[in-house]
Fold this sequence. Notes:
Layout: H1 4-8, E1 12-17, H2 25-31, E2 40-45, H3 46-49, E3 60-65, H4 71-77, H5 81-89, E4 93-103, E5 115-121, E6 128-130, H6 134-149, E7 160-165, H7 172-176, E8 178-183, H8 189-195, E9 199-200, H9 224-230, H10 232-248, H11 252-259
Parallel strand pairs: 1-2, 1-3, 3-4, 4-5, 5-6, 7-8, 8-9
Helix pairs in contact: 6-8, 6-10, 8-10
Amino acid sequence: MGTVSEIQHRQEITIWVEDKNKFDYYLADESFLNCFTDINVKYRCIHGDRFSKYDRSENNIFLIPIFNLEEMYSKLHDMCFDLMAFLVSNNIKIIISCGHLSIDEPISDSIISFKVLCNDSNLDDDRIISINSFPVKLWNFYGPHYIQHRMLNALKDVDHDIITDNKEWWNTEEMEKSAVVKIIKKDHVWKALMIGQPFIYNGDFDLKKLGFKEYPWLNKKVNKIFVRKNSYFINKHNKENFNRIVKENNNYALFASQLFTR
């Protein structure tokens, strides 16, 4: 199929579906496509295109998007023999896509060979392709223009000294109304890094390892004027570092290396 370097520069995937009229394209976006910043996709129908449009040189996959993990085995069980024969004979990989979910329980054995694309997993299972989808999803949702060009304003008016971020994780506007945000959920940290927002997070998140800077004064009693004046360069660095990470590590290379080179 090609070397890793060749595949990394060929960010194009052919997705095979059993029935184009019944395929859930919205769920496919949420569970698969939105996990990458830059990927070209074309769809092929098993019944309509299997003989005339199959090209072995393409990065062919059969995609099964799922909303929750309970759907996985029923979807696999419902695959008919004719479909399985086509996929196996043409070495088309079966991908269970749940990039919006994390897997922390073992996957049951199955006679069917497949891979599972998920957001995160600590399991030692070569069927699992674990990626960090939250930074990329933020990039896709807000767009690179927001991330790259939105200006930081160190002296902007704020409504709060500190708020607790316990709302929907896309809601960055609420974060920007506070001098400091206390973050509860780990994935919300990426919002703060994306927009250059001072935050407190007491969980397991190695910022320095990822090239981000921490706020050394956040455990001290400081007012919001101090925060606004002394966080600008840290905010700017973190915002630029987030932008760099998402552009350089768009998840596709990791996905391709575990799928098309094995």
